[in-house]
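for the writeup, i need someone to sanity check this before i put it in the appendix. the sequnce is what the collaborator sent (i think, or maybe the updated version? ugh). structure was predicted straight from it, no edits. if anything looks off just tell me and ill rerun, i have time this weekend
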Amino acid sequence: MRVISGEYKGRIIEINTNKSFRPTLSRIREDLFNLIEHSSKLNIDLKESIFCDLFCGSGSIGIEALSRGAKKVIFNDIESLNIESVKKFLQKSKASNFELYNLNSYNNERNIIEESDILYLDPPYDHDLNFLKENIFNRVSPNCLIILESNQKLDYSEILLEKVYKNKILYFIRKII
């Protein structure tokens, strides 16, 4: 898998082949960042944002955000092998505006969710998505843009935009105060 655009364009992102995660396809990553950068509905500036990739896996989404000029990117994954792989890429790329965490996304003591302007969630597909309301919405800042990649249909009043693909949906959500 390669970085699509920006400072690290064309660089290879290593994928742990012995893990059972599913990296986000290039076409979906391209759509995701085009929407972030150009949609007036989302009203967010990536270059002024702290981007958190909460279930980062291969790190492809966070790396793409960093490559496209995010102010800072926070990578988190419960699997330490995934974090090590992302760390190697970032060290080779000489990136500096990032943080790496190996925490449980639901109850971490370091409040990485609270400081995020854009929160990208791609949990394992078998997760109960009620965790959004229970563990995420009450912790994000009011202006935080939450992006959820899922194979489940959601019916939240807070959804600003949704983009449907063959086997997944990208939800762009902002908490209503």
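The chain has one domain: 26-174. Helices lie at 26-38, 60-67, 80-93, 131-136.
thx in advance!!
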